[in-house]
Specification:
By secondary structure, the chain is of the alpha/beta class. The chain is built from 20 helices and 11 strands. Helix 10 crosses helix 11 and helix 16 packs across helix 17.
Length: 524
C-alpha cells in the first residue's frame, strides 16, 4: 500500500541526507561562467543563476533516494492513492494520456463532439463560464493566451460571490444566444451555485428554458441532474482530479468553444510530453526535479519567503494566479503525512506581474531590498505579432533584468560612473551608496519556443511535477486543501445569522466580539 510508504517517511529535519543537502547548498555558489540549460518537451530551462556544485548534485541524489522518488513518482502515474488524507488518487496525468481509460476517452470525445456540433450550427455567440478557483483559472488562461486576437464568440467569466460579478457577466447579452457553463467539482461550491441560480433566473425572465442553455461540468453528476440540468448537458470528471488540476478535463469545454478544440488537444499533448520527460529523464536533466530542488534550497535553506513570476508575454498574465493556486494551495501546509509538524520552511508565496509592467511596479524591491526573492523569468523566443522590434525590446528587458539581479553593481562601480558624469568626489561617493545593488540573486529563465497550446501545456505540467517533488521532499500532501474549509463552514453560520437566525444558532463556533459587532452593524 502506498499509504504505508508515505507513513514511513521520516521527518525531514531528522534525515542525515537533509543535513548533507543543507550544507552543500550553503557551500555552493552561483557560477556565472557556466550555463546549465535543460531541454524538456520543447521548453528550455536555464538554471545557470542557481547554486550548484558536485557535492550538491550528490546530496540531491541521496535525498531523493531516501525520499523514494522513483516509487512515489511511479505511484502518481499509476493512479495509486497518494492523496492520503482523502484516500484517493491524484491522477490528472491520466487525463492527458493519448490512450486513457475508456471513461476518460468517452468524456473527451463527448466534449469534442459538442464543440464540433455547436460550431457547425453557429450556435451561441456568448459563453458565460461560472466557476471559481481550479474551475476558473485554467480556462481564463487558455482563452486569454489563444483568444487575444478575437473570436466570433465572446466569453465572460463569473467567479466571485459579489453580485456585481454576475450582474456584469450577464449585462448586455442576449439570453437566447448565450450558453452558461457551470463548472464545479462538487456541485456544492457556494459562490458557483449562487451565481448559477442567478443565471437561471435571468434565462427564465427572458422566457428561455435554462436547462437548454446550461451545461454542467462536475464530478457529481447526480447533484447537477437534481438541480435541473438535463443529463445530456452534464459533462463529468472524477474525484481523483483535483480542482487545480482540472483544466485537462471537461472543465476546458468553454475554452474549446471560444478558442477551438485544437487548443484543448494541444494543451493535453504538451502536458503529456512533459509527463514523459518527468517520468524518464535522469535527475540531473529533469527540469521539474531541478526546479523543485532549486526552490527547496532557496526556501528551506536560504530562507527566501517568496518567489516572483516575471512573465514576459502579456498573453500569459493569468498564468500568475493559475500558478499561485497550484503552488500555494498545494504547498501551503506545515504537517507531514503522519500529522507531525514539519520543522523546515515550506511553500513560499508565489506572486508576480507580466513584464515589463513589473519593472515599473516592484522590481525596485527585487533589486535593492534587504530580502529580495528568486525569480522565474518566462519568455517566448518567437512572437506571433508583426512588430519584431517590440519583441526584441521585450527580450532585451527580460535578459537585462535577470543579469542585473545576478551581477548587481558594486559601490566602486557606481562611484566611477558618477565621476564620469562630472560629479565631485563627495557627491559621487554619497550617491554610489544609493545606486549599488547586491547582485547574487537567484533566478530561472524558462524559454518557450513560441506560445502554442503544446508549449503552454508542457509549461503547466512542468510546474505540476515541480510541486510534486517539493511536496515529496518536505513530506506533505499536496493534493488536499483543508485550510480553506474552516472559513467556508464559518461563512455558512454567519450567513444564516445575517439572514435572521439567532447568533446562538451558529453551529461551529462562538463569535468573537469584533465579528459580532460587525454582524450587528451589517444587519442594521
Amino acid at each position: 500500500m502506498i499509504h504505508d510508504v508515505l507513513k514511513q517517511l521520516e521527518p525531514l529535519d531528522q534525515l542525515p541526507q537533509w543535513e548533507q543537502f543543507k550544507q552543500a547548498v550553503l557551500a555552493a555558489k552561483i557560477d556565472c561562467k557556466q550555463t546549465v540549460i535543460l531541454e524538456a518537451a520543447g521548453l528550455k530551462v536555464d538554471l545557470s543563476a542557481q547554486r550548484r556544485s558536485d557535492a550538491l548534485s550528490q546530496a540531491v541524489s541521496d535525498l531523493l533516494e531516501v525520499r523514494q522518488l522513483d516509487k512515489l513518482r511511479q505511484a502518481l502515474f499509476d493512479g495509486e492513492h497518494l492523496n492520503s488524507t482523502e484516500d484517493r488518487a491524484a491522477w490528472h496525468t491520466m487525463l492527458r494520456q493519448p490512450q486513457p481509460l475508456i471513461e476518460v476517452q468517452s468524456e473527451r470525445l463527448r466534449v469534442l463532439e459538442f464543440v464540433r456540433r455547436v460550431d457547425n450550427d453557429r450556435r451561441w455567440r456568448n459563453i458565460v463560464h461560472i466557476g471559481i478557483g481550479g474551475s476558473d483559472w485554467g480556462v481564463r488562461l487558455a482563452t486569454q493566451a489563444f483568444g487575444y486576437a478575437g473570436s466570433w464568440r465572446q466569453i465572460r467569466f463569473v467567479s466571485n460571490i459579489d453580485g456585481h460579478a454576475i450582474e456584469g457577466g450577464l449585462a448586455g447579452l442576449d439570453p437566447h444566444d448565450t450558453l452558461v457553463v457551470v463548472a464545479t467539482k462538487s456541485f456544492r461550491t457556494a459562490e458557483t451555485m449562487a451565481n448559477a441560480a442567478r443565471a437561471c433566473e435571468w434565462f427564465e425572465a427572458a422566457g428561455v428554458n435554462a436547462g437548454n442553455n446550461t451545461i454542467a461540468v462536475t464530478a457529481n453528476p447526480e447533484a447537477a441532474a437534481a438541480w435541473g440540468i438535463p443529463r445530456h448537458n452534464i459533462y463529468r470528471f472524477w474525484d481523483w482530479v483535483g480542482g487545480r488540476f482540472s483544466l485537462w478535463s471537461a472543465v476546458g469545454v468553454a475554452a474549446g468553444l471560444t478558442v477551438g478544440s485544437g487548443v484543448l488537444a494541444g494543451l493535453q499533448s504538451g502536458a503529456h510530453a512533459m509527463d514523459r520527460h518527468f517520468l524518464n529523464a535522469p535527475i540531473e536533466e529533469n527540469a521539474p526535479i531541478q526546479l523543485a530542488l532549486a526552490e527547496l534550497a532557496n526556501r528551506s535553506v536560504l530562507g527566501y519567503g517568496s518567489r516572483n513570476l516575471a512573465v514576459y508575454d502579456s498573453r500569459l498574465s493569468y498564468l500568475i494566479p493559475y500558478l499561485q493556486q497550484l503552488e500555494m494551495e498545494s504547498l501551503g501546509k506545515s504537517v507531514d503525512h503522519q500529522g507531525r509538524d514539519i520543522k523546515v520552511a515550506t511553500g513560499p508565496v508565489v506572486w508576480g506581474m507580466p513584464g515589463t509592467d513589473a519593472q515599473h511596479t516592484f522590481f525596485q524591491w527585487l533589486h535593492q531590498s534587504s530580502e529580495g526573492a528568486p525569480v522565474d523569468f518566462i519568455v517566448c523566443q518567437k512572437a506571433d505579432h508583426q512588430w519584431q522590434q517590440h519583441h526584441k525590446q521585450l527580450l532585451a528587458h527580460c535578459l537585462a533584468q535577470r543579469q542585473a539581479l545576478l551581477h548587481g553593481k558594486s559601490t566602486a562601480q557606481a562611484e566611477t560612473e558618477n565621476r564620469h558624469k562630472g560629479m565631485d568626489s563627495a557627491q559621487a561617493q554619497w550617491l554610489a551608496h544609493h545606486r549599488k545593488q547586491p547582485g547574487g540573486r537567484a533566478s530561472n529563465l524558462i524559454v518557450l519556443p513560441q506560445l502554442t497550446p503544446f508549449s503552454l501545456g508542457a509549461l503547466l505540467a512542468m510546474y505540476e511535477h515541480k510541486v510534486f517533488v517539493e511536496a515529496l521532499v518536505w513530506g506533505l500532501n499536496p493534493f488536499d486543501q483543508w485550510g480553506v474549509e474552516l472559513g467556508k463552514v464559518l461563512a455558512d453560520d454567519i450567513f444564516a445569522i445575517l439572514n435572521g437566525s439567532a447568533a446562538g444558532d451558529a453551529k461551529h463556533t462562538e463569535l468573537d466580539c469584533s465579528t459580532q459587532y460587525w454582524i450587528n452593524q451589517f444587519k442594521a
